[in-house]
Write a structure and sequence with these properties.
Blueprint: E1 3-7, H1 11-20, E2 26-31, H2 34-40, E3 46-49, H3 55-61, E4 68-71, H4 77-90, E5 95-98, H5 102-110, E6 115-117, H6 119-132, E7 136-143, E8 146-152, H7 162-165, H8 167-171, E9 173-179, E10 200-206, H9 207-213, H10 226-229, E11 242-245
Length: 246
């Protein structure tokens, strides 16, 4: 069974814990806040009230060969950097660390973090398109410049088939699946699928092409809607647990 450690129960750390608690893995948490440890101790295999600032504490509590460590120490930039360095020196390969800024993220990467997460920025990238355009139902950046989006087709595509529209050539988009009945799940279709006004596409493509397809002009174009987009881019069986103070 895979084992993970969460160091710091900030907002991101809590959410990761909630997600991990839904699958069959062992989770250990370390935090200095006794109330937080008490609140979440029934969801983990072990919990420790400890100050992560000290290298000897990290070496003592984090098992050798751990499958991954998540670091979320809130605004404690220096401490998260030190913890990342400690784990890297211990040989931990999978270190996911929350960053407060670009500079903080760069430091974490240099010190050995395998993945740096910017929760506020990533949430803003997902939510802003949904606020601006009623045609977006979901918007998920998956890499620099590439997104997956659930998007309502424009009225002029009503009655046309996927082949007739040729999304890859016309819009530089790849259609992964469609939903043609509100509230129903997405499903795969052939090229002769005929769209209606209810059709929602699960499309993948460059962020600018996705935005353009929604009827807006991507940032950098002289359209009056340009300024709107400038902010865009930048349960298993419970286990017995033990709780210790260091």
């Amino acid at each position: 069974m895979k084992q993970f450690v969460i160091i710091g129960l900030g907002a991101f750390g809590k959410r990761v814990l909630e997600e991990l608690s839904q699958i069959n893995v062992e989770v250990m948490v370390i935090d200095q806040d006794e109330a937080l440890i008490e609140q979440y101790s029934n969801r983990v295999s072990k919990s420790f009230i400890a100050n992560a600032l000290h290298e000897e504490v990290i070496r003592k509590l984090v098992p050798q060969g751990i499958d991954g460590v998540v670091i979320d120490l809130g605004g404690k930039v220096e401490v998260s950097a030190l913890v990342t360095n400690y784990l890297n020196k211990m040989g931990v390969k999978n270190i996911v660390a929350r960053a407060e800024s670009d500079e903080h993220g760069e430091i974490l990467s240099l010190l050995g973090a395998s993945r740096v997460v910017f929760p506020t920025r990533e949430a803003a990238k997902r939510i802003t398109p949904l606020l601006v355009s009623p045609d977006f139902y979901n918007f998920l950046p998956i890499s620099d410049g590439l997104v997956i989006a659930e998007i309502q087709i424009p009225p002029d595509l009503d009655g046309k088939t996927l082949i007739e529209v040729d999304f890859r050539k016309t819009y530089q988009l790849n259609i992964m699946a469609v939903r043609d009945i509100p509230g129903k799940p997405f499903h795969f279709v052939d090229g002769d699928f005929r769209m209606t006004n209810n059709t929602v596409l699960l499309a993948v493509g460059d962020q600018r092409d996705i935005i353009r397809f929604s009827g807006f002009t991507p940032s950098g174009s002289p359209d009056k809607k340009d300024t709107i987009w400038k902010s865009l881019f930048f349960q298993p069986k419970k286990k017995l647990f033990s709780r210790f103070r260091f």
